[in-house]
Amino acid sequence: MISTKRFFTILLLFISSIAVAQELEDKTLLTIDGNPYDAGTFMRVYLKNLDIVQDDSQKDIDNYLDLYIDYRLKLLQAYEMNLDLKESYKKELNNYRQSLAQAYLTDTDVTESLIREAYNRKKREVKASHILVKVGPGDAPQDTLKAWNKINAIKNELDNGADFSKLARTKSEGPSAGNEGKLGWFSVFRMVYPFENAAFDTEVGKHSEVFRTDFGYHIVKVFEDRLARGEVTVAHIMTFDARDAEEKTAEKRINDVYKQLQETGRFEELAREFSDDMNSASRGGKLDRFGTGGLNATTFEDIAFGLKEKGEYSAPFKSKFGWHIVKLIEKHPVGSYEDLAPSLKEKIRKSPRARKITDSFNKSLREKYHVERSEKVLEKLNEVISDSILSNSWQYDPALKMADLKMFTIKDEEISYADFYKDVMSRQKKDFTNYSSKEEKVQKFYYDFIDKSIAAYYDKNLENENKDFAFIYDEYKEGLLLFDLLETKIWNKAKEDSTGQQAYYDLHKSKYQWKRRLDIVLTQNTTEEVAQEVQRLLKNGTSREEIKKQFNIDGRTKVMMSNGIVEETYNRIPDNFEVKEGVSSIYYDEKTGFYKVILVKEVLEPSQKTLDEARGAVINDYQQQLEKDWMSSLRNGRTIKVNKKTFKKVKKAIAKDA
Fold this sequence. Notes:
Pfam families: Rotamase, Rotamase_3. This is Peptidyl-prolyl cis-trans isomerase SurA. The chain is of the alpha+beta class. Among the domains are: 111-227, Chitinase A, domain 3, CATH 3.10.50; 231-332, Chitinase A, domain 3, CATH 3.10.50.40; 370-465, no CATH class; 513-608, Chitinase A, domain 3 (Roll). It contains 25 helices and 20 strands. Strands 14, 15, 16, 17 and 18 form a five-stranded antiparallel beta sheet that branches. The chain has a four-stranded antiparallel beta sheet with strand order 4-3-6-5, with helices on both faces.
């Protein structure tokens, strides 16, 4: 038999879409103390796990039935213990349901289309400029018309051959106007979605049609298009002069560092020692990976991307932040679609373009439930709701006209006008959008209310609306119960039963032995020179506090120290470390770039662990023993009956599908 944890892991993995023979779907396969379990569920869990089970004995249907019976016995015990009534269980199950439901409250086709679009754009970068005429979403119609006329006049000039850069400089109302509307290079997710669409859909050398964003009306011109550079990881050494500095020394200091770098090649050490960028200095100058536009520093980005080989570093150069030397750590080309799809999906979910997914999904639900947006209903609403809604002060009166009448129906559920009025009261307190008229705001609230209502209905009835969801949800519900059962009967008992732990330890004492251990003071130093001085001080008996006080000044950490008793295999001890009491040689750690010096105060030979020292391992082993004993007692006192005729049909159906 496989362990409970192994079976639990197998059972909760991937959902299969294999169809179960209809005639067996609801047939009772077995009963336990009179509780029936259908053949359809058994077939699903067997078939979906068939490819991931490695032990051939577990693929045997008779053996698997035994596992399935054990699983049902455990769940039956959990229900008998009322674990499903615990508030913590109900809360976690509700949280999971909300999370799981999100995958079913969306339009997967539109989502896939947006992911594919984002990936294709991620492989490109465009260099563009734009002209903006400002207008806000809630501006009055006359102001919107004025802006529209102005942008169209500019468009006519461009169509007739006017210079784009000149018009951007003289007529654009955006912050980039003084720079001829230039936006530099950018890729996907760097601009608002309508702007991104216009930029990527416009030919190089051409200007776009007029389009609108929340900022106003735009025209964009694309000057260049290139393959994306991907992302890059670099380290840098940076110097800068404070604004009020009497003497400007940043350029001289970076050149001095550059000379040392050419002589020693020790970039990380010099970054820790001399870089003014405190955020990266402690990491040897390493910066988080970035792409085009990621640092808002074109000069820095161009030089970083211009480095060819790992370890290559630039000559000193100046950016708007200060003076730099940049070293290439790694280049990250644009990954495959399969690798990037999950992160792109998450970005889309958090971006305004997700509205396309929501709109498509809501449209499909309106069609599914035959709910239409009614102009007649809108007329009635505008008769009842006053202009006070524009100041978010409209009041709902239960005696209002039509309050008790049906507004629309979702299957068997009626939505009244009163439901909408209450929603308006609640929403207007949180909605600070500017609307040009009462009618515009009422329409927006009405359309959104319909979509919100049908989405809530679909969510509430997901178990009936979607079989895949119901199966996965039931799996998690049962898996969570099983977890609580094991925690109650096995894990907590193993942790809390001190008498049982002692008895188990006494019987298996030989298992719990210390390896050779060292009582050490471990020092990690930024440079070899610092390590040499620390080594000397340790030999002289200088305390840890005095050493750190001497070296770690002005916010710079040159020495890191830790102490304690560790086994000789401790991963921070160098591989070639010579074990002996006293102050060690200096060891260079290539992975971290630190120079290590270790004071071994005492070498402790192998010995027997006490129960307290072995407590963690003892609890783990005792837990496994408890689980083994529990498993062997599961069927005691239970009446288990397998419908052999149904099981025979199940075997035939599984053999056919497998």
